[in-house]
Amino acid sequence: MNLSPRLLKIANFVEKNSIVADVGCDHGYIPVYLVEKNICEKVIATDINIGPVENAKKTIRNNNMIESIDVRLGSGLTKIDEHEINSAIIAGMGGLLIRDIIIQSKSIIDSLEYFILQPQNSQIELRMWLEKNEYNIVEEDLAFEGNKIYEIIKVKKGKMTITNDIMYEIGVNMKNVSKNDYMVFINKKINKYLNIKENILKNATSVDADKISKINEKIMKLGDVLLCL
Ligand SMILES: C[S@@+](CC[C@H](N)C(=O)[O-])C[C@H]1O[C@@H](n2cnc3c(N)ncnc32)[C@H](O)[C@@H]1O
Protein backbone atom coordinates (compact mmCIF):
# COMPACT_ATOMS: atom_id res chain seq x y z
CA MET A 1 0.00 0.00 0.00
CA ASN A 2 1.48 3.32 -1.09
CA LEU A 3 0.45 6.08 1.27
CA SER A 4 0.40 9.82 0.56
CA PRO A 5 2.94 11.86 2.58
CA ARG A 6 0.18 12.89 5.02
CA LEU A 7 -1.05 9.35 5.65
CA LEU A 8 2.52 8.06 5.87
CA LYS A 9 3.44 10.59 8.57
CA ILE A 10 0.32 9.59 10.53
CA ALA A 11 1.20 5.89 10.20
CA ASN A 12 4.81 6.62 11.27
CA PHE A 13 3.54 7.76 14.67
CA VAL A 14 1.98 4.32 15.35
CA GLU A 15 4.15 2.26 17.69
CA LYS A 16 4.97 -1.35 16.79
CA ASN A 17 2.55 -3.95 18.21
CA SER A 18 -0.14 -1.37 18.91
CA ILE A 19 -3.78 -2.31 18.62
CA VAL A 20 -5.07 0.82 17.02
CA ALA A 21 -8.47 2.20 16.06
CA ASP A 22 -8.57 4.27 12.88
CA VAL A 23 -11.54 6.56 13.54
CA GLY A 24 -13.04 7.97 10.33
CA CYS A 25 -11.13 5.38 8.33
CA ASP A 26 -12.79 6.26 4.99
CA HIS A 27 -10.66 4.45 2.35
CA GLY A 28 -9.03 2.13 4.91
CA TYR A 29 -5.51 2.79 3.61
CA ILE A 30 -3.89 3.34 7.00
CA PRO A 31 -5.14 0.07 8.57
CA VAL A 32 -3.98 -1.91 5.52
CA TYR A 33 -0.56 -0.22 5.59
CA LEU A 34 -0.12 -0.89 9.33
CA VAL A 35 -0.87 -4.61 8.93
CA GLU A 36 1.14 -4.94 5.71
CA LYS A 37 4.23 -3.44 7.36
CA ASN A 38 3.80 -5.64 10.45
CA ILE A 39 3.41 -2.59 12.66
CA CYS A 40 0.04 -3.87 13.90
CA GLU A 41 -1.41 -7.36 14.04
CA LYS A 42 -4.93 -6.05 14.47
CA VAL A 43 -6.66 -2.77 13.62
CA ILE A 44 -10.23 -1.63 14.21
CA ALA A 45 -11.44 0.77 11.50
CA THR A 46 -14.55 2.82 12.18
CA ASP A 47 -16.55 5.38 10.24
CA ILE A 48 -19.84 7.13 10.85
CA ASN A 49 -20.95 6.78 7.23
CA ILE A 50 -21.85 3.62 5.34
CA GLY A 51 -20.09 4.71 2.09
CA PRO A 52 -16.63 4.95 3.73
CA VAL A 53 -17.25 1.72 5.65
CA GLU A 54 -17.95 -0.05 2.35
CA ASN A 55 -14.85 1.59 0.78
CA ALA A 56 -12.68 0.41 3.66
CA LYS A 57 -14.11 -3.13 3.49
CA LYS A 58 -13.31 -3.24 -0.23
CA THR A 59 -9.69 -2.09 0.32
CA ILE A 60 -9.31 -4.67 3.09
CA ARG A 61 -10.81 -7.49 1.00
CA ASN A 62 -8.58 -6.60 -1.95
CA ASN A 63 -5.56 -6.89 0.34
CA ASN A 64 -6.73 -10.17 1.97
CA MET A 65 -6.79 -8.64 5.44
CA ILE A 66 -10.32 -9.37 6.69
CA GLU A 67 -8.90 -11.43 9.56
CA SER A 68 -6.74 -8.56 10.81
CA ILE A 69 -8.89 -5.47 10.26
CA ASP A 70 -12.31 -5.17 11.82
CA VAL A 71 -14.56 -2.50 10.25
CA ARG A 72 -17.36 -0.97 12.30
CA LEU A 73 -20.07 1.55 11.48
CA GLY A 74 -20.56 4.20 14.15
CA SER A 75 -19.52 7.58 15.51
CA GLY A 76 -16.01 8.01 16.89
CA LEU A 77 -15.04 5.23 19.29
CA THR A 78 -18.60 4.39 20.35
CA LYS A 79 -18.49 0.93 18.78
CA ILE A 80 -15.26 -0.02 20.55
CA ASP A 81 -14.79 -1.41 24.06
CA GLU A 82 -12.08 0.03 26.28
CA HIS A 83 -9.88 -3.10 26.44
CA GLU A 84 -9.98 -3.70 22.65
CA ILE A 85 -7.40 -1.05 21.69
CA ASN A 86 -4.40 0.75 23.17
CA SER A 87 -4.19 3.62 20.67
CA ALA A 88 -6.25 5.56 18.15
CA ILE A 89 -5.93 7.70 15.05
CA ILE A 90 -8.42 10.50 14.37
CA ALA A 91 -7.31 12.13 11.13
CA GLY A 92 -8.52 14.17 8.19
CA MET A 93 -11.31 15.95 10.07
CA GLY A 94 -11.81 19.44 11.46
CA GLY A 95 -10.14 20.13 14.80
CA LEU A 96 -13.46 20.82 16.50
CA LEU A 97 -14.97 17.55 15.28
CA ILE A 98 -11.86 15.74 16.56
CA ARG A 99 -12.34 17.47 19.93
CA ASP A 100 -16.03 16.40 19.99
CA ILE A 101 -15.09 12.78 19.19
CA ILE A 102 -12.62 12.81 22.11
CA ILE A 103 -15.30 14.26 24.43
CA GLN A 104 -17.84 11.69 23.23
CA SER A 105 -15.56 8.79 24.20
CA LYS A 106 -13.48 10.41 26.94
CA SER A 107 -13.21 7.32 29.14
CA ILE A 108 -11.85 5.12 26.35
CA ILE A 109 -9.56 7.91 25.13
CA ASP A 110 -8.19 8.26 28.67
CA SER A 111 -7.45 4.53 28.78
CA LEU A 112 -5.24 4.65 25.67
CA GLU A 113 -1.45 4.67 25.74
CA TYR A 114 -1.47 7.34 23.03
CA PHE A 115 -3.56 8.79 20.22
CA ILE A 116 -2.74 10.54 16.97
CA LEU A 117 -4.65 13.54 15.66
CA GLN A 118 -4.48 15.21 12.28
CA PRO A 119 -6.78 18.22 12.27
CA GLN A 120 -7.53 19.86 8.90
CA ASN A 121 -8.31 23.16 10.62
CA SER A 122 -8.85 24.76 14.08
CA GLN A 123 -5.44 23.47 15.20
CA ILE A 124 -5.07 26.38 17.66
CA GLU A 125 -8.39 25.61 19.36
CA LEU A 126 -7.58 21.90 19.48
CA ARG A 127 -4.16 22.43 21.14
CA MET A 128 -5.75 24.84 23.66
CA TRP A 129 -8.46 22.30 24.43
CA LEU A 130 -5.92 19.49 24.85
CA GLU A 131 -3.89 21.57 27.31
CA LYS A 132 -6.99 22.62 29.30
CA ASN A 133 -8.20 19.02 29.53
CA GLU A 134 -4.88 17.56 30.69
CA TYR A 135 -3.65 15.93 27.51
CA ASN A 136 0.02 16.12 26.69
CA ILE A 137 1.32 16.65 23.15
CA VAL A 138 4.37 14.38 23.11
CA GLU A 139 5.38 14.88 19.50
CA GLU A 140 4.26 16.66 16.35
CA ASP A 141 5.11 16.33 12.68
CA LEU A 142 4.41 18.12 9.41
CA ALA A 143 3.45 16.56 6.09
CA PHE A 144 3.82 18.43 2.81
CA GLU A 145 1.42 17.66 -0.05
CA GLY A 146 1.29 20.10 -2.97
CA ASN A 147 0.98 23.54 -1.42
CA LYS A 148 -0.64 22.19 1.74
CA ILE A 149 1.08 21.54 5.06
CA TYR A 150 -0.64 19.11 7.43
CA GLU A 151 -0.07 19.04 11.19
CA ILE A 152 0.09 15.66 12.93
CA ILE A 153 -0.14 15.56 16.71
CA LYS A 154 0.70 12.62 19.00
CA VAL A 155 -0.96 12.85 22.39
CA LYS A 156 -0.84 11.06 25.76
CA LYS A 157 -2.91 11.60 28.88
CA GLY A 158 -1.08 14.02 31.16
CA LYS A 159 -0.45 17.67 31.88
CA MET A 160 1.38 20.06 29.57
CA THR A 161 2.07 23.72 30.01
CA ILE A 162 2.35 25.92 26.99
CA THR A 163 4.46 28.91 27.91
CA ASN A 164 4.20 30.97 24.74
CA ASP A 165 0.81 31.59 23.05
CA ILE A 166 2.34 31.30 19.59
CA MET A 167 2.94 27.59 20.25
CA TYR A 168 -0.79 26.90 20.00
CA GLU A 169 -0.31 27.86 16.37
CA ILE A 170 3.11 26.49 15.47
CA GLY A 171 3.06 23.36 17.58
CA VAL A 172 4.54 22.53 20.95
CA ASN A 173 6.79 19.60 20.15
CA MET A 174 8.22 19.64 16.63
CA LYS A 175 11.56 18.22 17.81
CA ASN A 176 11.95 15.84 14.85
CA VAL A 177 10.80 18.25 12.14
CA SER A 178 13.70 19.53 10.06
CA LYS A 179 14.65 23.17 10.52
CA ASN A 180 13.91 23.82 6.85
CA ASP A 181 10.41 22.30 6.98
CA TYR A 182 9.60 24.18 10.17
CA MET A 183 10.75 27.44 8.59
CA VAL A 184 8.56 26.84 5.52
CA PHE A 185 5.61 26.14 7.83
CA ILE A 186 6.12 29.31 9.88
CA ASN A 187 6.76 31.45 6.82
CA LYS A 188 3.49 30.22 5.35
CA LYS A 189 1.71 31.40 8.48
CA ILE A 190 3.43 34.81 8.30
CA ASN A 191 2.30 35.15 4.67
CA LYS A 192 -1.25 34.21 5.63
CA TYR A 193 -1.33 37.02 8.22
CA LEU A 194 0.28 39.51 5.81
CA ASN A 195 -2.49 38.72 3.29
CA ILE A 196 -5.21 39.10 5.92
CA LYS A 197 -3.68 42.42 6.95
CA GLU A 198 -3.51 43.64 3.37
CA ASN A 199 -7.18 42.78 2.83
CA ILE A 200 -8.24 44.57 6.00
CA LEU A 201 -6.18 47.63 5.10
CA LYS A 202 -7.86 47.82 1.68
CA ASN A 203 -11.15 48.52 3.45
CA ALA A 204 -9.70 50.05 6.60
CA THR A 205 -11.79 51.96 9.12
CA SER A 206 -10.80 53.02 12.61
CA VAL A 207 -12.69 49.95 13.94
CA ASP A 208 -10.05 47.71 12.35
CA ALA A 209 -7.10 49.19 14.30
CA ASP A 210 -7.38 46.58 17.03
CA LYS A 211 -7.47 43.74 14.51
CA ILE A 212 -4.39 45.11 12.76
CA SER A 213 -2.43 45.40 15.96
CA LYS A 214 -3.29 41.77 16.88
CA ILE A 215 -2.17 40.60 13.44
CA ASN A 216 1.04 42.62 13.72
CA GLU A 217 1.70 41.02 17.09
CA LYS A 218 1.25 37.53 15.57
CA ILE A 219 3.59 38.35 12.69
CA MET A 220 6.17 39.65 15.14
CA LYS A 221 5.96 36.55 17.34
CA LEU A 222 6.25 34.23 14.33
CA GLY A 223 9.24 36.26 13.12
CA ASP A 224 10.85 35.94 16.56
CA VAL A 225 10.48 32.14 16.41
CA LEU A 226 12.15 32.12 12.98
CA LEU A 227 15.07 34.12 14.36
CA CYS A 228 15.56 31.60 17.17
CA LEU A 229 15.68 28.53 14.90
C1 LIG B 1 -11.95 13.38 5.02
S1 LIG B 1 -12.19 11.76 5.62
C2 LIG B 1 -10.62 11.40 6.29
C3 LIG B 1 -10.28 9.95 6.10
C4 LIG B 1 -8.96 9.49 6.70
N1 LIG B 1 -9.01 9.46 8.14
C5 LIG B 1 -7.84 10.36 6.24
O1 LIG B 1 -7.23 11.04 7.08
O2 LIG B 1 -7.57 10.38 5.04
C6 LIG B 1 -13.15 11.99 7.07
C7 LIG B 1 -13.89 10.71 7.45
O3 LIG B 1 -14.38 10.84 8.77
C8 LIG B 1 -15.67 10.30 8.83
N2 LIG B 1 -16.33 10.86 10.02
C9 LIG B 1 -16.84 12.09 10.19
N3 LIG B 1 -17.34 12.23 11.42
C10 LIG B 1 -17.11 11.06 12.06
C11 LIG B 1 -17.38 10.57 13.38
N4 LIG B 1 -18.01 11.32 14.29
N5 LIG B 1 -17.02 9.32 13.67
C12 LIG B 1 -16.39 8.53 12.77
N6 LIG B 1 -16.12 8.94 11.51
C13 LIG B 1 -16.47 10.18 11.17
C14 LIG B 1 -16.28 10.64 7.48
O4 LIG B 1 -17.37 9.79 7.16
C15 LIG B 1 -15.09 10.44 6.55
O5 LIG B 1 -15.02 9.15 6.04
What is the strand and helix layout of this fold?
Layout (H helix, E strand, L loop, with lengths): L4 H8 L7 E4 L5 H8 L6 E5 L2 H13 L6 E5 L13 E7 L1 H10 L1 H6 L2 E6 L3 H10 L2 E11 L2 E10 L9 H4 L8 H24 L6 H20 L1
Helix pairs in contact: 1-2, 4-6, 8-9
Give an overview in words.
- This protein has 229 residues and is an alpha/beta fold.
- It has 2 domains: 5-161, Vaccinia Virus protein VP39 (Rossmann fold, 3-Layer(aba) Sandwich); 181-228.
- Helices cover 45% and strands 21% of the residues.
- A 7-stranded mixed sheet has the order 3-2-1-4-5-7-6, with helices on both faces.
- Strand 6 and strand 7 form a beta hairpin.
- Helix 1 (5-12) crosses helix 2, helix 4 packs parallel to helix 6 (123-132) and helix 8 (179-202) runs antiparallel to helix 9.
- The chain binds S-adenosylmethionine.
- Residues 23-24, 26, 46-49, 52, 75-76, 91-93, 97, 101 line the site of S-adenosylmethionine.
- It comes from Helicovermis profundi.
- GO terms for molecular function: tRNA (adenine(22)-N1)-methyltransferase activity.
- InterPro entries: SAM-dependent_MTases_sf, TrmK.
- Keywords: Methyltransferase, Transferase.
- This is Class I SAM-dependent methyltransferase.
Broad shape = elongated
List segments where confidence is low: pLDDT < 50 over at least 5 consecutive residues.
Answer: none
What gyration radius follows from the Cα positions, in whole Å?
A: 19 Å
What distance separates the N and C termini?
36 Å
Main beta sheet, described?
7 strands, mixed
**Number of H/I helices:** 9
Oligomeric description of these chains:
single chain
What is the second-level CATH architecture of the largest domain?
A: 3-Layer(aba) Sandwich
Domain module tally: 2
- Arithmetic mean pLDDT: 96
Bound molecules: S-adenosylmethionine
The CATH superfamily title of the largest domain: Vaccinia Virus protein VP39
Helix fraction, binned, reads 40-55%
CATH topology of the largest domain: Rossmann fold
Please state the structural category.
alpha/beta
How many beta-strand runs?
A: 7
| Neighbour order of strands in the largest sheet | 3-2-1-4-5-7-6
Strand content: 15-25%
Helix and strand string, N-terminal first? Answer: HEHEHEEHHEHEEHHH
